[in-house]
Amino acid sequence: MITHIALFLILITSCPIFPQSIEVCKSCDFNSIKTAIANANAFDTILIKKDTYKEHNIKIEKPLTLIGKDYPIIDGELKGEIITISSDSVTVNGLSIINVGTSYTEDYAAVRVKRSKHFTLKNLILENLFFGIYLEKSNYGKIYNNKIIGHAVEEYNSGNGIQLWYSNNIEIEYNHIQYVRDGIYLEFANNCLIKNNVSTENLRYGLHFMFSNNDIYQNNTFKNNGAGVAVMFSKNIKMYNNLFKENWGTASYGMLLKEINDAEIIGNTFMENTIGINIEGSNRILYKHNNFSNNGWAIKVRGACYTNQFLENNFLYNSFDIAYNSKVNDNIFNRNYWSNYTGYDLNKDGVGDVPYRPVKLFSYIVNRTPETIILLRSLFIDVIDFSEKVSPVFTPDNLLDNNPVTKKIQW
Amino acid sequence: MLKILKYSFFDLMRSRWSYVYFAFYLLLGIILLFLNNDLSKAVITLMNVIIVLVPLIGTIFGVMYYYNSKEFTELLLAQPLKRASIFIGQYLGVALSLSMSLIFGLGIPFIFYGLLQSTAIWDFSLLLTSGTFLTFIFTALAFNIALSQDNKIKGFGYAILLWLFFAIIYDGFFLMTLILFEDYPLDKLSLVGTMLNPIDLSRTLILLKLDISALLGYTGAIFKKFFGTNFGLIISSLMMTIWVVFPVIRIIIKSRKKDF
Predict the structure, then answer these.
(1) Are residues A42 and A20 in contact, defined by beta-carbon separation less than 8 angstroms?
(2) A373–chain B nearest CA distance, Å
(3) Considering only CA atoms, which of A313, A326, A327 is closest in space to residue A356?
(4) Best residue in A362, A373, A378 for a mutation probing chain B (most B CBs within 10 Å)
(5) What pLDDT is attached to residue B111?
(6) The pTM is what?
(7) Is A281 in contact with A263 (CB distance < 8 Å)?
(8) Which chain B residues are Cβ-neighbours of A369 within 8 angstroms?
(9) Cα–Cα 20 to 30 A to A204, which of A39, A155, A265, A352?
(10) Which of A249, A368, A378 sits opposite B203 (nearest CB)?
(11) Integer angstrom CA distances of residue A362 from A136, A356, B187
(12) Cα gap A170→A189, rounded to integer Å
């Protein structure tokens, strides 16, 4: 028995990878994070106590866990990048990182992860930043419950909150991002899950996809951004139960789709946006159970959009339900609820007996000659809209909802 | 002139039509506020009503009043009074009482609803100002028609045609012009086109004040740049004033020459 214990003790003390805990504070053995990291072994935990540490260029090159107690502040003093991770299995938790340097030649970030796997970045507060969290060819990571608050004024000299570049299988959850250029930006990032984030007041987009496939984003809130979400040149994106709100301005969108194929847009709410969804060159998309309420344009179809399906959505009190700029229609509208529908339902089966034409003549005219928008809400416009509704001449005559539901759809 | 104004005004104030008009706006205001609890939304709906109804009622009422009080006018003409003061007095009486019905009819429910604490007060006062301007403009135009046309039926016909022109037909021509010249820059043309029609002008002014202006996109931005500045505001109120002054001058000239 005694030999067993002795053996065990020898094993413990001699084994170099047994995790240790190292404390950092002004009166501890290590009073800077850099020295603590330099002296730590792989898989150690570094506990950082509450204080202000004026450090930048902190490089984490071995698997470590950094834990901040009561949000210690790491002040980069605007000198450059603050934390750079280039090892697998690193966890950074509970730090407040401020004052990232701005550069026109390098993308300084508060936390950068380079060619690593299985990292976790959570409970961070990033303020006064250029880029917030920057993932570079890193996979299988988690970005969880961070608060990123920038101070972006101009697009050209501001960075993104969370940026993914060639990074796959990342989970981004419960983050709060505001006042940056793009809240979350994905470039060549596949199989990512973006969930329960709040992205508001950003200069450009709340969430931005570029060349990223098979991603899911759900239950996020995008409020008052330049445009809520821009999805561009991507395939198989699933968009569920998000809220797009108050993206209001002369060039604002709730969602911008460009060259998107085979996506699913289900259960989202578009509220008070200038344009709810702007669609360009997007095919085989399913729009189902979405709410479009009080938007300027609920959906603006710019062209080259084929075999899309719009099923069981609610279109409530939008100035224009659909804007369409061609006479060819290959998209299906079925069983939607349109608040502007004026038909009747004689057999009381909940489906209107007269098809609904969602494209008004005026929206067609405005698409052709944008200046005519100045006649919005003129009596003359109501008159011509009515006559077009009775006998369509300019709008595609097969663009109609044959089964308009007469009551708002609940699901 | 003031005395005639007073007589016309009190005559109209006692008349049933002013009450009906007043009651209509009162009811409209109450129903609007009752149905949607949002003040700025109510302002939009009211705008739709005001830019269509106020000119219509102004024209019809003006023509009607002139023809109805023709005998009284002839009696007055026999007195040693200036012709201009008789007709201007009558005109102001009608326009003032109509404006009062409008302002009180809409103002009372909105004030009870808590307008004074709300941020919509500026939109609302703009709405009432342009409504008042429209009343003055269209009543003056109606008096012009009635003065030039002794035949009652023809007079009414022209009055309705006048309203139709400004409310609907003008926009039709405007739209056609914009589409016809779509290859050219249209900013200035659309600005001028809006300025020339008082109904369009007040509609644009109100729309630009409301949230909905973002819908107007690029064109709206240009309009906002123009109307948002003091210069634009001065120009547009000048334009409205011109629309009042010219018909009034014509009333004076016409009444001086007219053989009764």
Answers:
(1) no
(2) 6
(3) A313
(4) A378
(5) 84
(6) 0.81
(7) no
(8) 178-179, 182, 186
(9) A265
(10) A378
(11) 48, 16, 19
(12) 8
